[in-house]
Amino acid sequence: SKILRICRDYLHDEWKSTPISAYQFKHISGGLSNYLYYVALPETGKDDNNTTIEDLESANEPRKVLVRIFGQSHSNDDSIESILTESVIFTLLSERGLGPRLYGIFQGGRIEEFIANGRSLMTEELYDANLSVQIAEKVAA
Questions:
Q1: What is the rounded average pLDDT of the residues 51-59?
Q2: Hey, where are the domains in the chain?
Q3: Contact 120/30 with Cβ under 8 angstroms?
Q4: Does residue 105 register a pLDDT over 90?
Q5: N or C: which end of the chain has fewer CB within 10 A?
Q6: Which tens digits make up the pLDDT trace of 108-139?
Q7: Which fold has domain 2-140?
Q8: How do residues 6-32 score in pLDDT, each as one tens digit?
Q9: pTM for the structure as a whole
């Protein structure tokens, strides 16, 4: 699939050597305008070099990622500026540890850290002033 090829192109080591059939892959619902996909390497205790999963994760080798494909609202010329602004903000938040890690940006989307216990905000939550204040306080701290 296109999503798995993107992961193999942008991620390293085990992502390039794992057979396509061994990946865990699923579409994640909840994106307002983007298409979200969970992709993970197979769960193994050690690889052929006796390297543990913890060793790989500490070496910045993600085991699980979220692939975000920009959707319909990003398909016209007016949205290019919006995509660039969002990408810059996402990158800055990632670099400062205030958001998911960024693993790659490609034409039409990006590869992000998968946050297992996280969830997308519901549409009505986007307009909740109290929730916006809580988020702003956490980002500013």
A1: 55
A2: 2-140
A3: yes
A4: yes
A5: C
A6: 899 999 998 877 778 888 889 999 999 888 87
A7: Phosphorylase Kinase; domain 1 (3.30.200)
A8: 999 999 889 999 998 999 999 998 767
A9: 0.79
Type of residue found at 56 = L
> Residue 1 has which token pair?
């699939």
Secondary structure in 3-state letters for the chain = CHHHHHHHHHCCCHHHHCCHHHCEEEEECCCCCCEEEEEECCCCCECCCCCEHHHHHHCCCCCEEEEEECCHHHCCHHHHHHHHHHHHHHHHHHHCCCCCCEEEEECCEEEEECCCCCCCCCHHHHHCHHHHHHHHHHHHC
Alpha-carbon distance of 68 to 35, in angstroms, equals 6
Strand partners, 110: 68, 105
